[in-house]
Design a protein that fits this description.
The chain is built from 13 helices and 15 strands. The protein is of the alpha/beta class. It is globular. Helices cover 33% and strands 20% of the residues. α1 packs across α2. The N and C termini lie far apart (55 Å). A nine-stranded mixed sheet has the order 14-13-12-11-7-10-9-8-15, with helices on one face. Strands 3-2-1-4-5-6 form a six-stranded parallel sheet, sandwiched between helices.
Length: 471
């Protein structure tokens, strides 16, 4: 029974956490609830639902342990308030009695928000259970974690399942990258600085580089990671969503759908990716990780080229790479501008000076660098490169963690930072050729920049090296 309620930023009055005894709740959701209580006063019940044969006291002990371990600036009063609001329903998701007991606890609630911190394979049981007790007809929404499917077909099936019970405006597809402070800075940079935004155009930009490198492997996550790989784990969702945020034109208003419309336009304008423009890699030692298949061809590294056919970005290749066990940990968007037609002031015997660059480092920390050329000091008329840098300092304003921001937005009914159905399907449509024709996987040594074969799809002039302080 699909809800016919179309709320206008109606605030939820209860939170139902399915999978409350799992790792996501322990590492992210309890700390997020602490932060929200400390700064916004949630003032509603938090009802956990799980199969684990725990008592309410055991759940409260786990919640306290979570907040003490994962909250940097712990507020004892906020922690106690969150713990006091907890309720627990133990039972199988496929059993009607589980939802009948949940319904009793929701008796006085008119807009319960359900958070599905569970594997997608269990979504159908939970959504059907919420349907039976009419939770969706009360104006409450549903929050689902990525991955939103494993390919285009499964993503469409998941979408059909959710939209059979909930309207699109009550479905919150959460990608925690979109709640990061640094990603929001990338979005606002273009909107707030038109003098620089005019340079972000195919007439001025040679290419764009998006990097998500990590210097660690997948120890402890072998079973999960071996079933997905880099393309599904971070490219289809995190990196394409970041790309869309950066490439999107300014929205016509501050309505949540206005920004989501512009992001959707970018993703819908993507060409289907060409398998010939992708190289996959697997670090040496991956096959020894617990729960990884001994003959696995899952990629831990991928380098590829995306192309967005809009008036602004046509003919600007977007080079994307992501990898585990690489030389450094760094997430960055870099714009490489076109070179001047003539380089008149080079020193004798000097190489061509590097192009201007605009770089947004999202991790570690936050930094924005504009790379330009200035006169080399001395008598010779020649140039040298310098960087104009802004670096975010710890303690510079209250830093809201991504899960706290996104969970708070879902509670308030603000959809701005959540993925919309058409954007998700457009991203899968672009990536699907790579899943259908993945090609070989090439070995690479840990602590390197990936397999040598990836040079074939590298940006002109190669990938930008880390700036000072990143090594």
């Amino acid at each position: 029974m699909r809800s016919t309620i179309h709320p206008k930023h109606d605030r939820s009055d209860a939170l139902v956490l399915f999978g409350i005894t799992g790792d996501l709740a322990y590492k992210k959701l309890f700390p997020a609830l602490h932060d929200l209580e400390a700064h916004e006063d949630l003032d509603f019940p938090v009802i956990g639902v799980a199969r684990s044969d725990w008592t309410l006291d055991e759940l409260k002990e786990r919640a306290e342990a979570s907040m003490r371990e994962h909250v940097e600036d712990l507020d004892e009063d906020a922690m106690r308030t969150v713990i006091d609001r907890l309720e627990y329903v133990q039972g199988d998701y496929g059993h009607p009695d589980t939802f009948e007991r949940l319904n009793e606890l929701l008796d006085d609630c008119s807009r319960p928000l359900a958070y599905l911190a569970i594997p997608p394979s269990l979504f159908d049981e939970v959504v059907e259970g919420l349907d039976r007790i009419g939770a969706n007809t009360r104006g409450g929404g549903v929050v689902v974690e990525k991955p939103f499917g494993r390919d285009l077909e499964s993503a469409q099936e998941l979408d059909d399942l959710l939209r059979a019970s909930f309207p699109e405006e009550l479905i919150y597809r959460i990608d925690h990258f979109l709640g990061k402070e640094t990603v929001l800075d990338v979005m606002l940079f273009r909107l707030a600085n038109p003098v620089l935004d005019t340079l972000l155009h195919r007439h001025e930009v040679d290419h764009i580089q998006i990097t998500m490198a990590e210097d660690f492997g997948i120890e402890g996550r072998g079973g999960f990671y071996d079933s997905v790989g880099a393309v599904r784990d971070v490219v289809q969702n995190h990196l394409l969503q970041i790309m869309a945020v950066f490439l999107a034109d300014p929205p016509v208003s501050d309505d949540p759908e206005a920004l989501r419309d512009e992001k959707a336009k970018v993703l819908k304008a993507m060409r289907p990716m060409d398998p010939a423009e992708m190289v996959r890699g697997q670090y040496v030692g991956y096959l020894d990780v617990d729960q990884v298949a001994p003959d696995s061809t899952t990629e831990t590294f991928v380098s590829l080229i995306a192309r967005v056919e809009t008036w602004r970005w046509s003919d600007v290749p977007i080079h994307i790479r992501a990898g585990k066990a690489m030389a450094e940990t760094r997430t960055e968007i870099a714009v490489v501008f076109k070179r001047p037609p003539l380089s008149l002031y080079r020193g004798e015997g000097m190489d061509e000076p590097p192009p201007n660059t605009l770089r947004f480092r999202l991790k570690p920390g936050e930094r924005i660098d504009l790379g330009i050329q200035l006169k080399e000091p001395g008598e010779e008329i020649s140039t040298h490169g310098v960087h104009m840098t802004y670096e975010w300092k710890p303690g510079q304003g209250r830093h809201t963690e991504a899960y706290a921001r996104l969970l708070g937005d879902a509670i308030k009914g603000d959809r701005t930072l959540f993925a919309r159905s058409d954007s998700v399907m457009a991203a899968w449509s672009a990536v699907q050729p790579l899943i259908d024709e993945p090609g070989p996987v090439h070995p690479y040594q840990p602590g390197t920049q990936g397999p040598p074969e990836a040079d074939r799809v590298a940006p002109p002039g190669g990938w930008l090296r880390p700036l000072y302080g990143d090594e």
